[in-house]
What we know:
By secondary structure, the protein is mainly alpha-helical.
Amino acid sequence: MNHSKAVPTKPSQIRSSHGDRIFDICNYIFLTLLMVVTLYPFLNTAAVSLNNATDSIKGGIYLLPRMWTLDNYAYVMKESTIFHATLISILRTVIGTIATVFCSAMVAYTITRQEFVLRKFVTIAFILTMYFNGGLIPNFLLIRDLGLLDNFWVYIFPGLIGVFNLIIIRSFIEGLPESILESARIDGAGDFKMFYSIVLPLCVPVLATVALFSAVYQWNQWFDVFLYNSSNIDLSTLQYELQKILQNSNASLTTKSAGDAFANAGNSGANTVTPFAIRATMTIVASLPIIMVYPFLQKYFVKGMTVGGVKG
């Protein structure tokens, strides 16, 4: 009859176990502090946006509003152009993101093909555009000559291919097993068939990452509206309208009126909207759509950003 004997625990194993526990505790503390530091600015901005504007001048607002109100949001949303501008922003974000992801993926696939003799030249030509830019005036003249002034497509065409996105997608495609594409080629599939049926499904993580980058860029843009479509109110975007609201509030509220608002801050009924409160409200309004989209792409985001670290 065999009797099992307990294996004595070595001191080194005990020390290692204690060290692991200490490391885990320190890691949890560090990550908790990092989370607080990351979330606090957003939570503080949200608190300011939901607080009485004249009361906010006194300061002392941290995570929760001191005097709850929706007047700041009512002031921002009272503009008749806000909802139409929001629709334009949604359209440019959706169309621009889909077009950018698809076109960037096509070019990335092309420059990874060994049979494409100009792949190095094309790659260098794209990378050079990251370091050299024609400038604001040449870009404006080019847009004008292309007939894109006062045109919705000025939001889409200039950014169809992003070089940074191109490099990320190319690195991912280069890590795919070449044998899969060779098998498809033997079966008679053409390049577009291989791209559409094989490469795109395998590139979902990196495409989701690029889509997030592109969506954030398109949603936050307002300067191109100012340059190319400022005379056409039907093509104004949410960010541009919010920018105009902030400028109007800065112009209308003088130092004297701000001082009067501070003097009346103790009156709970007074709520003179201030640029500080408008800025906080604008930040929340502009950020919420991206925050709501990110959780659906987060599982792909980490994987997509680590492409190229380990080659198959």
